[in-house]
Every structure is written in structure tokens, then in C-alpha cells.
């Protein structure tokens, strides 16, 4: 029997191709028809591996978030929050176009619910009420998702003339895009430290 000219489909291959489309074209750019064309198959072939586009997105999310570090809670709840937040931001920052999908919440994603269960349990065991634990986790997610979704520093023009005398306190704002990655990271760290210290 001759070897097929198109490599056989697999869940991993489908997820990788779909994520590449999302990274390149955004969430709205992903359709099952476009994904099938990218893989060199008919759209109907995909449905043997994924039932719906939402299931595919949930599978991609689980794959992206798999490296999130939940190990710090055996040391201290503060250390757990910091490790979780840093690794969460790192995972999301690599694929910012999928962040809006993830921001809707964890429903249907077993691994996300497991992480939230660990977070809430660690906080309740440390003495926080269930309501407070929920609010702390929500606050942490606001920080993480906000940091992963956009770059504050890249939002500035690199032309000094755009600021001039009209904005005297922004006279160095044109320098921000050149140090965006560093400044965005340091700003995230400052906010995370202030959040945890405030708690």
C-alpha cells in the first residue's frame, strides 16, 4: 500500500497548526476550513480528531498553560502566587492572540480548573475565607492577563516630536518602545510584588 502523500492527522499536528494560525492571524483568523487547508486535508477530516472549534481552542489552551508552575504553595502561599503568576504570564505572553479566549474563564478546561482548585485550596488553608480566596485569585488573573494581553511601552511613538513641549512629563516617552520587553516585565514584577505585599 503506498504511503499517503499528506502526513496523517494527529491531535498534536492539528493543535500546532491551529495555534500557528492564531499567532499569525488572531482568533478571528482561525476557522476549520482555513485549518484544513493549512494541513492539506478536507475540513471533514478534522472532525475525527476535534468535535468543535471550541474544543480545539480548549485543547490549545490546555497545551499552552501546561507549564504553569503550581509548586510554590508547599513553601508558602505568597511564593505560590508569585511562581504561578510569573509562569502564567510567560506562557500567555508567547501567544497573546489567544488571551481573549482564555479571559472568558476556565469552564470546560480540566487543567485550568485543577490549577484554580490548588490556588483556592492553598489560600483557604493559609487562613483566607473562601470569598477572599476567590477575590485574590481573580485579582491575580487580572494582573496576569492584563500583562500578557498588551505592551504598555510599545504603545508610545518613538518620535520625540510627538511629545515636545505639550507633554513635558513625557519628554522621554519616545525611548520606551526600545526597552519595551524589559519595562513591561519590570512593571509586571512591580505590580505583582505590590499585590502580594498588600495582601
Automatic annotation (TrEMBL):
Q: One GO biological process from the UniProt record?
A: negative regulation of DNA-templated transcription
Any one GO molecular function term: transcription cis-regulatory region binding
Q: Which UniProt keywords apply?
A: DNA-binding, Membrane, Repressor, Transcription, Transcription regulation, Transmembrane, Transmembrane helix
Domain (HTH tetR-type): give its ranges: 8-68
Q: Which residues form a coiled coil?
A: none
Report whether Transcription shows up as a keyword of the record: yes
Q: Which residues cross the membrane?
A: 133-152
Record-annotated DNA-binding residue ranges: 31-50
PROSITE patterns named among the record's database cross-references: HTH_TETR_1 (PS01081), HTH_TETR_2 (PS50977)
SUPFAM superfamilies listed in its UniProt record: Homeodomain-like, Tetracyclin repressor-like, C-terminal domain
Question: Organism, per UniProt?
Answer: Lentzea fradiae
Keyword Transmembrane helix among record annotations: yes
**Name this protein carries in UniProt:** Transcriptional regulator, TetR family
Family matches, as InterPro entries = DNA-bd_HTH_TetR-type_CS, Homeodomain-like_sf, HTH-type_TetR-like_transc_reg, HTH_TetR, Repressor_TetR_C, Tet_transcr_reg_TetR, Tet_transcr_reg_TetR-rel_C_sf
